[in-house]
Amino acid sequence: MKDIYVEFGSSADIKGETNDAKHKSANAVEVSTFTHLIRQPKSATSSSAGGHTAERTEHGELIFTKDIDKATTKLLQACSAGTIYPSVVIYFYRAVGGSNSTGTGSNNRVNYLKIELKNALVSSVSTTVAEESIPTETFGLKYSSIRWTYNQSKIDGSGIESSGNNIQGSWNLANNQVAF
């Protein structure tokens, strides 16, 4: 089991319908899929040794798929208006067992990845109604800065609180450097 929640901030008008106890008060949007492409384009120039030089990195949209819900109309509006959200946080959970998980019983899980965005923009929204399936939509987010935090844990979910188990990376697109 993997759960993904997107939070646009308490003052944002994009509010999801999750019933998840940990994210309901934040009006998180519950999503079912996630894709993100970051690429280092091949340089047109190369060194005398035959190697390629680094170009400016290209960060694609963060792409999410979700069921149509009460966030749908506000996502469409935000995309149309070019609304900037100062902070967006995406939480990723996976199923585990053990005392450090957030669920109870057989629904134990651990937050293993958190992605934080600064100055996020809803860059695309696409609605799909396929034959004999639930209507869904895909939306994309672009940003000025991103920070990834991976929380390493044991198979039972323990060890996640240890300071050495949080591995971070970040990138600031405006400055084209490691920063958040």
TrEMBL record:
SUPFAM superfamilies per record: Hcp1-like
Pfam family, one: T6SS_HCP
Annotated Gene3D superfamilies: Hcp1-like
Source organism superkingdom: Bacteria
Name of the molecule in the record: Hcp1 family type VI secretion system effector
PANTHER family to which the protein is assigned, alphabetical: CYTOPLASMIC PROTEIN-RELATED (PTHR36152), UBIQUITIN-LIKE DOMAIN-CONTAINING PROTEIN (PTHR36152:SF1)
